[in-house]
RNA sequence: UGUCCGAUAGUAUAAGGGUAGUACGACAGUUUUUGGUACUGUUUGUCUUGGUUCGAAUCCAGGUCGGACAACCA
């Protein structure tokens, strides 16, 4: 076995378990709660769980952890499935914790019969008061020693709907003095007269997370139940239920969740951004959701690559956004066709060009066998306003009075003059071109430092272009003083309603990815119509040019 | 003043008693019809104090720092 790459700690555990014969087949699961959209942190968990069974054989189930009917919706089930498929993974079984409600109920009965669970009718406040604190032990509830018969009777009546929400709860009988708060007689069933997205009104009692997750894993014969670090202290309970119920011993392993700079990752906060209309929905391209990244133009491959590069470990981490950007640039550099678009136009007139128009040939992608296309050229072009400086900075290789640049795929031009309006703004640049300098056939012998992009005025199409930047101005918005929303970046979205694009872009579809030469990677947005194309900037090109001060 | 988890360059992540390596970032250079790409180079690290050992990032003990835990959420 050649060791090309080192293993992460979970892969080591899996390899050991497989090599020792502890398990014949690896079974993992991805267990989202359908109460929100999946984000890049979930992508890390998805890649881990599905990646493990791809690498070592076995399979991964998709199991919706739907034990709380008031927050869960079918809309989320659907979006979550779409996101997992988009990432490129296939689950073996589509399952729901709610599939096991009958079985979970009988597990509860079994616990009661063993004297390991009891019905408590204390109020939520009373229960909290007796729970103790992390540094002080709790105290037993006065209902802790009900008879098994009475517990059975009340629990059955809870199920039958005889009581209102909160009147009774079922608790595991463990140890109110445990240093682990979760072992202090945790609540395992509560009454909720709520309609469930799958089981409808069949149930009015629902199991808590701790009484559903491990047992669901066990029912499915999950060998390695992988979750994030905040569940470490749940492991003791997880194992306790499995042991007392004498069921398949799934094992839980925890890794550190992903944190990304300049964004937030908690579903609660993302929901707030959506509900407060601070972004335009869950799939707003500025959101770290999988649907947001997809709309922004990220490829599944780039997201998988990112998840691969960040690694799996147990220490808290904060990944720099630049790594995500690297991953998408790396992918798109190889695959995206190069086209020209002018975002902030200024007119350039070639005063000695008398051919009218001319079709030039553009190479689609110098990094791939991308073929070529026709690009119309004429004596009036749009170029980028920022590519001209009236008073050039040092090391400026673009347009300036008397300076020469190459027009990409076309000719070398020399700036002869420029026009200003009454406010002193440059409105037009006048150049002469060098006929012998045509791209691919340059006999002029002239070498220029700078090459700029352009679009022929008479052939240009207009498009709306949306530029995105970091959602937050702080790298750690949820660690800042005050509300995280105070750190939203007011410039996270810039809309350019009238940019000019080369005519070939009229054929763009939602799956196309482009590099707008010198400007970044872009894709068509779903808001596009036949009359108006809308492009999203996925990411800028890396820019090593030091802006002159 | 509890229990649990963790600590390696700016950020991540390897090295499992024997040369501290890789990636991203940053910086510099070469190439270039994208100030892109590619290539080259530079920079910066084992939390601390002891112990075991010929030898410790690694094993042990104490400390420090960070995180988690007191929802009828997951």
UniProtKB/TrEMBL annotation:
Cell compartment(s), UniProt: Cytoplasm
Record-linked InterPro entries: aa-tRNA-synth_I_CS, Gln-tRNA-synth, Gln/Glu-tRNA_Ligase, Gln_tRNA_ligase_bac, Glu/Gln-tRNA-synth, Glu/Gln-tRNA-synth_Ib_cat-dom, Glu/Gln-tRNA-synth_Ib_codon-bd, Glu_tRNA_lig_a-bdl
Gene3D superfamilies: Glutamyl-trna Synthetase, Domain 2, Glutamyl-tRNA Synthetase, Domain 3, HUPs, Ribosomal Protein L25, Chain P
Annotated tRNA synthetases class I (E and Q) anti-codon binding domain residues: 451-525
The keyword Aminoacyl-tRNA synthetase is annotated on this UniProt entry: yes
Motif extent ('KMSKS' region): 264-268
Binding site for L-glutamine: 65, 209
Ranges where the Glutamyl/glutaminyl-tRNA synthetase class Ib anti-codon binding domain occurs: 336-433
HAMAP family: Gln_tRNA_synth
Protein name per its UniProtKB record: Glutamine--tRNA ligase
Lineage of source species: Bacteria, Pseudomonadati, Bacteroidota, Sphingobacteriia, Sphingobacteriales
Originating gene: glnS
